[in-house]
Amino acid sequence: MAVRLPQQGAPVLKFRAFRRGAAPALAVSVLVMLVASVFSMGATTAAAAAATSAASAAPAAGSLPAVDAATLRELGRLVFHDPSLSGSGRLACSSCHDPAHAYAPAGNLAVQWGGAHLDRQGPRAVPSLRYVLNRTPRWSEEYVANLAERLLEGPEPPAGGFGWDGRFDSLREQAVFPLLSVDEMANASAADVVAKLRQAAYADRFRHAFGAQVFNDTATAFAALLAAIERFELDDPSFHPYTSRYDAYLDGKVELTAQEQRGRQLFDDTRRGNCATCHPDRRGADGSHPLFTDYQFEALGVPRNPEIRANADPAHYDLGLCGPLRTDQSSQDRFCGLFKTPTLRNVATRGALFHNGRFHDLKQALQFYVSRDTDAARWYPAADGRVEQYDDLPRQLRGNVDVTDEPLTRHPGEPPAWTDAQIDDVVAFLKTLTDADARGPGG
After folding, report:
1. Among 78, 118, 303, 348, which Cα is nearest to 202's?
2. Residues of the chain with pLDDT under 50
3. Superfamily of chain region 45-127+163-239
4. Domain 3-39+243-431 annotated CATH 1.10.760.10
5. pLDDT of res. 19
6. Do residues 80 and 229 make contact, with C-beta atoms less than 8 angstroms apart?
7. pLDDT at 176
């Protein structure tokens, strides 16, 4: 099987069987071939696209003067918390990525409000920035060389990159998007951002670090700002404190309760929850603590969210890897509906879960996960007496939804992988992933 080695060093075996609709006879014949081979061989779309394009063309910092990491990090902290750099004058990076809430939003809105008048919805739920930023690999698509394995399991899902669709390979590129997006910080251009930065209370600190003439050239000043944000996000200890009970447990400082241990066993059980396959919970080979994500992409068939205004248009779909925000994979139909697996650290403090913020309660999100196919009518609307399962994807793309990995293999009328009592146990385990300083959406 294909083995991916995450950056923390823990190998993850990812089993990919045939997608929905594959002929059983073909699956058997390919299995025979595989065995033989083993023995023989051993926002508005236009505005979002413009912001994304600007991000990919973000000025490099190679021509910037050398600045010591501590100074750069402090400048990044000031920028990160400065609402004056937005079109509204009221929205900072920290408005949506609140340090007190594990660098996630403080409330439970499905998507956040932004724009020049704070009256526009962002396109997706805001993810936490904690833990993953300095361990995220570049976006890549793994190629399975063995033909039999490729036919039996299908292609490996892509992995890496920043954002729900992995379209940014550096934090400097990623930071450009919210700064220029009309749905977020709503600056008209890099020059608009630099003009605001020039008037900031800490502008002289940029001049001292990068030279008195730093603001004379927009590209240079903008690159300096992006370099500062990146250094803050990568280096500041607040982004990776490792102060959860689970970290203390891994270090032998505390014991998990009986309920938390039961929850962890259910989390790890490949025949039931199978969560650890995508959210590894073991130490890395180098002894590092797990980040609870494999950075791969998955189509879970999360129900459409009516809280997102754009979804009032029945022709609108957020297709993840293949659009509308990411455009370089638009022709890859098999990628449609795939979103990056988020870390589960601090998940119990989140007010909006999944890429579209469809669920606001962790227990309900887990109930969906284990009963999506056994009780579809509970989660999806009905039309003409027929349940519209996976309704947040066009019908012709619903075959991309994962039905091959447990517990997503079950059928109507079958019992779900977990009972409600077992879900409570898993919730108890997931709460051990909460950092000491992290507050929930009402905190």
Report:
1. 78
2. 1-44
3. Cytochrome c-like domain (1.10.760.10)
4. yes
5. 37
6. yes
7. 98
**According to the 3-state scheme, what is the secondary structure of the chain?**
CCEECCCCCCCEECCCCCCCCCCHHHHHHHHHHHHHHHHHHCCCHHHHHHHHHHHHCCCCCCCCCCCCHHHHHHHHHHHHCCHHHCCCCCCCHHHHCEHHHCCECCCCCCCCEECCCCCEECCCCCCCCCCCHHHCCCCECCCCCCHHHHHHHCCCCCECCECCCCCECCHHHHHHHHHHCCCCCCCCCHHHHHHHHHCCCCHHHHHHHHCCCHHHCHHHHHHHHHHHHHHHHHHCHHHCCCCCHHHHHHCCCCCCCHHHHHHHHHHHCCCCCCHHHCCCCCCCCCCCCCCCCCCEEECCCCCCCCCCHHHHCCCCCCCECCCCCCCCCCCCHHHECEEECCCCCCHHHCCCECCCCCECCHHHHHHHHHHCCCCHHHCCCEECCEECCCCCCCHHHHHHCCCCCCCCCCCCCCCCCCCHHHHHHHHHHHHCCCCCCCCCCCC
Looking at the chain, which residues constitute the CATH 1.10.760.10 domain(s)? 3-39+243-431, 45-127+163-239
**End-to-end distance of the chain based on CA atoms, in angstroms?**
44
Task: List residues bridging with 114 in a β-sheet.
Answer: 120
- Cα–Cα distance measured from residue 127 to residue 315, given in angstroms and rounded to the nearest whole number: 25
Which residues neighbour 237 within 8 Å (Cβ) at sequence distance 6 or greater? none
Amino acid identity at 21: G
CA separation for the pair 356, 334 (Å, rounded): 20
Helix axes 362-371, 420-431, angle to 10 degrees: 130
Neighbouring C-beta atoms of residue 30, cutoff 10 Å:
19
Q: 108: burial class by Cβ within 10 Å (0-12, 13-18, 19+)?
A: middle
pLDDT digits 0-9 by tens, 309-353: 999 999 999 999 999 999 999 999 999 999 999 999 999 999 999
pTM for this predicted structure: 0.86
Label residues 334-370 b or e (16+ Cβ within 10 Å = b).
Answer: bbbbbbbbbbbbbbbbbbbbbbbbbbbebeebbbbbb
Residues 6 or more apart whose Cβ sits within 8 Å of residue 442: 108
